[in-house]
Amino acid sequence: MMPDLGKYALAVLSAYGVSLVLIAAIVAQSVLRARRVRRELEKAEARHRNG
Amino acid sequence: MASIWEYANPRKFLATTDVVLPWVTALAAITLVAGLIWGFFFTPDDYKQGSTVKIIYLHVPSALMAINAWLMMLVASLIWLVRRHHVSALAARAAAPVGATFTLIALATGAIWGQPMWGTWWAWDPRLTSFLILFLFYLGYMALWQAVENPDTAADLTSVLCIVGSVFAVLSRYAVNFWNQGLHQGASLSLDREEHVADVFYYPLLVSIAGFVLLFIALVLLRTRTEIRARRLYALAARERMGQGAAG
Question: Which of A43, B155, B224, B232 is 20–30 Å from B94 (CA)?
Fold first, then answer.
C-alpha cells in the first residue's frame, strides 16, 4: 500500500509529517480555546444574571 | 433578500454559523483527507523530481491559502475601518493564526522540497523572501492584537498593519513574474492548460486545494465565534470591575 518513495522518502515523509503536525496543532488550539472561552463566558453571564 | 450586513450582528453570526460550521468542518475533513490520500498514494513520480512531486499537495495549497488568508484579512480590515462592524475586525483577528500556520507549512515544505531539487534549504529568492516577510507580518499582526488592550484601538492599528502587509502578500504571489532571477519556478496552476502541471497531478491538487480552503473557512468561523465570545467576556469583566470600583 505504501508507495515506493525511493531516495526522496525522507524528504516526502518529513514534509507530510511537519504539515500534518502543524495542521493538528492549529485545529487543537482552535477547539480548546473555543471550549475554554465558551465555559468562561457562561460562568460570567451566570454571575452577571445573579447580580 | 437578506443583506450581507445582517451577519455583522454577532447574534446573527453565531446563530448562522452554529448551523453551518458542522457541515463545513465535515466537508473540509473529507476533502482534505481525500486530496492528500489521492496525491500521496495514487499519483506517479515525476520524471524529473521523482517522488518529491508529492509535496506539491501540501506546498501549493498552503502557499495559496497563506496569501489568500491575508487578502481575506485585508477585506475584513477595510470593512472594519469603513463600517465599524466588530465581527469583521474579529474575523480578521481569527484568520491570522490560521494564515500564519499555512505560511509556515509553505515555508517548511518549500525548504524540504528545495533541498533535494535545488541543493539548498533556502535561497534569498524574490518569492521565498517575500513569503518570509509575509510570515513576519503575520507574527507582527498577532503580537499587535495582544499588545493593545482596548479592542477597538487594536482593531484600528492591526487594520493599518494589514493594509501595509498586503504589499508582501501580493509580492509573494507575483514576485516570480516581476523578477527573472531566483530559483522558484512559475505558477503550478493556470487557466492556460499548457502552463499548469500534468492532469495526473492537477486533479488531486485541485481536491487538496479545496480541502485547504474549506479547512481555512471552518477554522475562521470557529475562531471568529470564539473571538465574539471573548469580546463579550471582556465587556462583562469591564462592567464587573466598574461595579466593584463604584461599590468600593
Answer: A43
Q: Least CA distance to B97: which residue of chain A? A: A26
Q: Which residues contact B62 (CB under 8 A, 6 or more apart)?
A: A19, B102, B103, B105, B106, B109, B212
Q: How far apart are CA A7 and CA B145, in angstroms?
A: 45
For cell 503580537, name the residue: B143
- Interface pTM, i.e. ipTM: 0.94
B172 vs B178, more confident: B172
Q: Characterize B154-190 residue by residue with b for buried, 16 or more Cβ atoms within 10 angstroms of its Cβ, and e for exposed.
A: bbbbbbebbeebbebbbbbbebbeeeeebbeeeebee
Distance CA B66, CA B103 (A): 5
Q: To the nearest 10°, report the CA torsion of A38, A35, B5, B159.
A: 100
Across the interface, of A8, A26, A40, the residue whose CB is closest to B97 is A26
Q: Tens digits of per-residue pLDDT, B7-52?
A: 778 999 999 999 999 999 999 999 999 999 999 999 998 888 899 9
